[in-house]
Amino acid sequence: MNKEIENSRVSPGKKFVLKDQDTSYNGDLEKEAGKAALDLVKEALDKLQETLYAADSHSVLILFQAMDAAGKDSAIAHVMSGLNPQGCQVYTFKTPTSEEYDHDFLWRHYKALPERGRIGIHNRSHYENVLVCKVHPEYVLNEKIPGYDTVKKIDDKFWKRRYESIRNFEKHISDNGTVVIKFFLNVSKEEQKARFLERIEDPVKNWKFSSSDITERERWKDYMEAYEQAINETSTAQAPWYIIPADKKWYARLLISQILEHHLKGMNLKFPVLGEEEMAKLEEIKRSLLLEG
């Protein structure tokens, strides 16, 4: 594990303080050098993904969480560009539907888990239930949980149980062969402002901006507290959190790809080896093909 990967990983049991993180860190690289390094990682990811698909014994679940304009969509696009789309699936989670509200909060996320041999990418995730719902506890009332019919009843014990549910969920899927990697793209409030202004000033990017983005920006401090607590409560050995400096998008993309490469290599997967009977059949078919024409 290189220094940047190790430093970005949140150690289980060790107090993580979000304000101590440098959102503009770039690994002491120049932009062009970072892009060149990313191209090399993409080549490695292509081969590693092929092995994952062929082995058909594990899956990989990548979670992206961030404030608006942190670069989740572009990071996903760049990570995907180094992978075979046939072995990937991307889900973007928005406000739950009425059907989803009629189930527990993890139901829709469990349904979207990747099959063995595949990489699943969740743009926002089950963590919205301890992030946006923590900042806006009135949203929890839509779940109609017995005993929680007013916001006042949604207390610290409620959130502790919800963190526990998340830890148990991630442990369960990890125990059954899903490698869980969680990314928080850590953008500064100043950089978010610059990106919002760019979206407003550029007609091509107007569609990316919503007035609700400003409403949520006004709750920045509340969101940072929610992220810090959620990360501290749920970064485990089996499902680690990685804090990605996101003020420089090119570096965020490189670090995310390096972390994915690290985990795929650590799985030590191999291409399946055929048995003697299957190998004999292949030789027979080979001889038949060579005799054609």
Automatic annotation (TrEMBL):
Keywords: Kinase, Transferase
GO molecular function terms listed in the Swiss-Prot or TrEMBL record: kinase activity
Keyword Transport (UniProt): no
Residue span(s) of domain Polyphosphate kinase-2-related: 29-270
Source species, domain of life: Bacteria
Gene3D superfamilies per the UniProt record, alphabetical: P-loop containing nucleotide triphosphate hydrolases (3.40.50.300)
InterPro entries in the record: P-loop_NTPase (IPR027417), Polyphosphate_phosphotransfera (IPR016898), PPK2-rel_1 (IPR022300), PPK2-related (IPR022488)
Annotated family: Belongs to the polyphosphate kinase 2 (PPK2) family. Class I subfamily.
NCBIfam families, A to Z: PPK2_rel_1
Name under which the protein is recorded: Polyphosphate kinase 2 family protein
